[in-house]
Write a structure and sequence with these properties.
Blueprint: H1 2-11, H2 15-20, H3 34-51, H4 56-63, H5 67-74, H6 82-91
Length: 119
Amino acid sequence: MTTLQIMANGLQVSFAEMLAGGKKVPEWAHRLDDNAIRKRLAHIIDFERQRRTLHRYEMAELIGVAEATFTKLERASGNISVDTIAAIAKALKLDPATFLFSEKIPPTADLPVSDQPGR
């Protein structure tokens, strides 16, 4: 994601625009940087794991990553590839271009209240 953030900065577009590939994203998503995206992905993974009542190892298996990688995803650490984001979306049956910005997933504390979806 670091490379994508550099590209977005160079093109003077938001990180969300780069990930969404031309699909419409909510206004609040344009203010997310790569660190906030990692946190949002971690939140979505945890939300989906709990919604599906899966253990961590089961969720790791579902999204097709090793448990060590799953731990990094949960902690929002490390550099996550766009391929990994797409694979997670596919495994969860979500739109890979927009699931990180979906207002169907409750917002995280990463955004000020006024910037949170539905506010």
